[in-house]
C-alpha cells in the first residue's frame, strides 16, 4: 500500500546496486554513507548503519526493493526487517528506479525513463511518471542488441546505456539520500525481480 515519508527521522537502506545509506527527516539529509563496492554488503551493512546513526534510533526504515542484485536486495531487505523488528518501527520499500529518479520528478510532467546496468551487459528499464513517481510499467531486462521503445529525446537517468538515447539527466545508481525528494510511492518491503528469483543473472 502506498505510504508517505514524514518529518520523523527515517533510515534508508539501499543494497541492490551499491551500499548506500541515509538518515533523512522530510527533505533534510541528516547523514549519509555511500560505498560503491557491489560486494560485501553482508559484512559491511550493519557496522555502517551503526556508525552512521551514532546511537540515534529512526522512527522508520525504508529499504530498496529492486530491480537490482538478487543477493544485495535480499541482504538489505532482511536487515531492514530485522532492525524494524528490534526497534519496533515500521519498514517500507522503495523501488530502485524511484530512488534513481527521485531528484528529477518535479521538473516536468512527461515520463522519466530509468535505465540501470544489469549483469552480462543487460539493462533494467522502467518508465516513471512525473511528478507523482508512479511506475508506468513493470521493469524489463533488455539484452544487448534488443530494441527498446525509448524515444531519442526522452529524459533518461541511471547507469544503463541505451543506444540512440542522448538526453541523460544523470548516470548515477540508486542512492539512499535521494529518498528525501520523495513524497509518496512507498510500498511493502518485498523484492521486485525482473525475472523469477531463480534467474539470479537478471
UniProtKB/TrEMBL annotation:
Q: Does the keyword Transferase apply?
A: yes
Key words of the record? Transferase
Q: Mind telling me which SUPFAM superfamilies this protein's record contains?
A: Actin-like ATPase domain (SSF53067)
Which BP terms from GO are recorded? tRNA threonylcarbamoyladenosine modification
* Gene Ontology MF terms in the entry: transferase activity
Q: Superkingdom, according to UniProt?
A: Bacteria
Give the Gcp-like domain ranges: 59-123
Pfam assignment, any one:
TsaD
UniProt-recorded name of the protein: tRNA (Adenosine(37)-N6)-threonylcarbamoyltransferase complex dimerization subunit type 1 TsaB
State the organism of origin: Sandaracinobacteroides saxicola
Amino acid at each position: 500500500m502506498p505510504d508517505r515519508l514524514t518529518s520523523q527521522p527515517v533510515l534508508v537502506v539501499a543494497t541492490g546496486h551499491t551500499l548506500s545509506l541515509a538518515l533523512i527527516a522530510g527533505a533534510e539529509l541528516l547523514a549519509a554513507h555511500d560505498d560503491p563496492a557491489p560486494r560485501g554488503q553482508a559484512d559491511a551493512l550493519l557496522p555502517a548503519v551503526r556508525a552512521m546513526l551514532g546511537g540515534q534510533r529512526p522512527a522508520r526504515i525504508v529499504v530498496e526493493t529492486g530491480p537490482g542484485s538478487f543477493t544485495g536486495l535480499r541482504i538489505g531487505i532482511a536487515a531492514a526487517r530485522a532492525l524494524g523488528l528490534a526497534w519496533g518501527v515500521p519498514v517500507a520499500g522503495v523501488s530502485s528506479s524511484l530512488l534513481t529518479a527521485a531528484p528529477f520528478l518535479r521538473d516536468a510532467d512527461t515520463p522519466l525513463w530509468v535505465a540501470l546496468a544489469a549483469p552480462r551487459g543487460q539493462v533494467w528499464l522502467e518508465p516513471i511518471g512525473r511528478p507523482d513517481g508512479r511506475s508506468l510499467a513493470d521493469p524489463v531486462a533488455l539484452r544487448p542488441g534488443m530494441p527498446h521503445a525509448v524515444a531519442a529525446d526522452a529524459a533518461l537517468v541511471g547507469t544503463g546505456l541505451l543506444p540512440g538515447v542522448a538526453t541523460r539527466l544523470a548516470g548515477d545508481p540508486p542512492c539512499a539520500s535521494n529518498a528525501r525528494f520523495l513524497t509518496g510511492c512507498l510500498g511493502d518491503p518485498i523484492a521486485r525481480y525482473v525475472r523469477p528469483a531463480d534467474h539470479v543473472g537478471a
